[in-house]
Specification:
Blueprint (H helix, E strand, L loop, with lengths): L1 E6 L5 E6 L22 E4 L6 E4 L35 E5 L11 E6 L13 H19 L6 E8 L11 E7 L4 H16 L5 H12 L3 E4 L3 E4 L8 E7 L11 H18 L12 E6 L20 E6 L1 E3 L2 E2 L4 H6 L8 H10 L4
Antiparallel strand pairs: 1-2, 2-5, 3-4, 5-6, 6-8, 7-8, 7-12, 9-10, 10-11, 11-13, 12-13, 14-15
Helix pairs in contact: 1-4
Length: 354
């Protein structure tokens, strides 16, 4: 992998990740852009104890542009985009309309491919491996920023999810705090470690799923994918490396090499859940990594106790119908799942590649 860092016309950082070591990236951003101005602010809710990012400048962000005006496609002639070069393998840049910025963290866009009409599931094994390298590198770099406590790599796919740009891409949020979801995991981890004589809750969850087998979707030498026992979403898969590591940096070469085949297979199965002729399945793919900040409030727990894993889920519950977060979910954070987890796992096994 070759990494090339440059700057866009308004001063934002752009990084190219190339599979070839001899690739030259010297194209200049020719757009007449003013310096980026953001209003990002993090406010803490005193009752719930969580944080909310206030980012009113995002109202002006680009919304469903036509394909010939896509800002994530490479620049061609006088059609200038966020990517000055005429081609790229993987490109990462600071979001022009970030939810988090400055002392409130950082937001980046990850362009998986220059092909506007493809998706992550269409990538080759080599391309998917390069995206993994980019995620890992950005996690390492962002973890060193003084304002960053947790790094979250994710992809939203589909207009139903709320995606406003159709080009295959994901994002990275570098939070100045530990997120509420991770905090809940760490509390459960700490409580179980104390109650079970030091046993690791993540390890037990994975072992229990493998022993039961009814919710296992696929396994490989270095990865395990299953529908969780208490799945929140209609079709939800958790992907764990067999060797527990706290973050993407901890993956060994064998796990890195095998990841693209496993992940691409999961994504392709998701697109086959609802049968032939159905539109592409909308989904969220979310990497959960240990925070880089101090963990003193979680007594007895350190970063190595956390287990890196990816959660992949769709809000589509059946053909033409979506799972909405209504009163119980939005008002009380109590999910109601319309699909039995064992049935979801069975369907995901049925649509395996031949």
């Amino acid at each position: 992998m070759k990494k090339t860092s440059t700057r866009l016309a308004d001063g934002r950082e752009l990084i190219y990740y190339d599979s070839r070591d001899d690739t030259v990236r010297d194209a200049v951003d020719r757009r007449p852009l003013d310096p980026t101005v953001t209003t990002s602010e993090v406010r803490r809710d005193p009752l719930l104890g969580d944080s909310v990012a206030i980012a009113s400048h995002r109202q002006g962000r680009i919304y469903h542009p036509p394909a010939n005006e896509c800002p994530l496609c490479p620049s061609q002639g006088e059609r200038l985009s966020e990517i000055p070069d005429s081609s790229y393998d993987v490109a990462v840049f600071e979001n022009r309309f970030p939810s988090l910025a400055g002392d409130s963290g950082r937001c980046e866009v990850v362009c998986f491919t220059s092909d506007h009409d493809s998706s992550f599931a269409d990538l080759t094994v080599e391309q998917a491996g390069l995206v993994l390298e980019a995620w890992t590198d950005r996690t390492a770099e962002l973890s060193h920023l003084p304002s960053v406590e947790q790094v979250f790599c994710f992809e939203n796919r589909g207009a139903e999810i709320g995606v406003t740009l159709g080009h295959p891409h994901g994002q990275i949020y570098a939070y100045p705090f530990t997120t509420p979801r991770t905090t809940l995991m760490l509390r459960s981890l700490a409580a179980h470690k104390e109650a079970a004589g030091g046993a690791n809750l993540f390890d037990e969850v994975v072992a229990r799923e493998l022993a039961d087998g009814s919710r296992v979707v696929l396994t490989s030498d270095h990865w395990v994918a299953f529908v969780p026992y208490a799945a929140h979403w209609p079709y939800e898969v958790h992907l764990y490396p067999r060797r527990r590591v706290p973050d993407l940096l901890g993956l060994d070469e064998a796990a890195r090499t095998e990841f693209p085949q496993v992940y691409l297979e999961l994504l392709r199965r998701f697109d086959r859940i609802f049968g032939e002729g159905e539109p592409a399945t909308p989904y969220i793919a979310a990497w959960h990594q240990a925070p880089f900040g101090a963990l003193e409030e979680f007594e007895g727990v350190n970063r190595d106790d956390f287990a890196l894993h990816l959660e992949l889920f769709t809000i589509r519950r059946t053909s033409g119908k979506l799972k909405f977060l209504a009163g119980s979910e939005s008002g009380m954070s109590v999910f109601i799942n319309d699909i039995q987890p064992e049935s979801a796992a069975q369907r995901l096994r049925e649509v395996a590649s031949s």
